[in-house]
Design a protein that fits this description.
The chain has 197 residues and is α/β, with parallel strands linked by helices. The protein is built from eight helices and five strands, in the order E-H-E-H-H-H-E-H-E-H-H-E-H. Helix 1 packs across helix 8.
Length: 197
């Protein structure tokens, strides 16, 4: 849990920080973030889309420069968005491997983080035969399982909110839960702070 997040005691203030959406590849993070933007008025920012718009297709970045180069681009992009006041009310979707980069993980400890939790049965139909995700090569199903097991603990550690994205749960239902929980966290006084006597 990111203890810094709730509003300061007695202020009722709404922290103007983006909500960072994490989770494994193909969990549906970008789809959920878009739904939040359309129906609840949040700004929508997607780290992978920003990287593609500036540097080209991610699979080609991996092929030309390797994963380390991509992770550095990704970390710089995430730091830039988190610093930008124009994205203060965004739902900010980041790639499944982003929290594994130490600088990103440290930055997310100070943000409101929502983890979209899924399972293999939910995701595998979406990635079967995929050629567009370099981290899932050569066997998308096996690699997804391996990566999820390696990253799951990090997702759980960073999460202030855990959303059940398994099965056929409608995105509208997940979005409604996320909006309600964001609202509650942003209006809950931080009782960990001392009140002057």
């Amino acid at each position: 849990m990111n203890a810094q997040f709730p509003a300061p005691a007695g202020t009722g203030a709404v922290p103007q920080r983006p909500v960072v959406l994490i989770g494994p590849m193909a969990a549906g993070k970008s789809f959920l973030a878009l739904h939040m933007a359309k129906f609840y008025g949040y700004d929508f920012v997607d780290a992978d889309q920003l990287i593609v718009s500036r540097h080209g297709v991610i699979a080609e970045i991996f092929a030309r420069h390797g994963e380390k180069y991509f992770r550095d681009l990704e970390a710089d992009t995430i730091a830039e968005v988190l610093r930008d006041p124009d994205h203060a009310d965004a739902i900010f979707s980041v790639g499944g491997g982003a929290p594994m980069t130490p600088s990103v993980r440290e930055a997310l400890r100070h943000e409101l983080v929502a983890y979209l939790e899924v399972d293999a049965a939910t995701v595998l139909p979406r990635i079967r035969g995929s050629r567009s995700r370099p981290m899932l090569r050569p066997d998308p199903e096996q690699r997804w399982q391996e990566l999820y097991e390696a990253r799951r603990g990090c997702y759980e550690e960073l999460a202030d909110i855990v959303l059940d994205g398994t099965g056929d749960r409608p995105v509208a239902e997940i979005a409604a839960e996320l909006h309600e929980r964001i609202t509650r966290l942003r209006t809950t006084p931080d009782t960990t702070q001392e009140v002057p006597s």
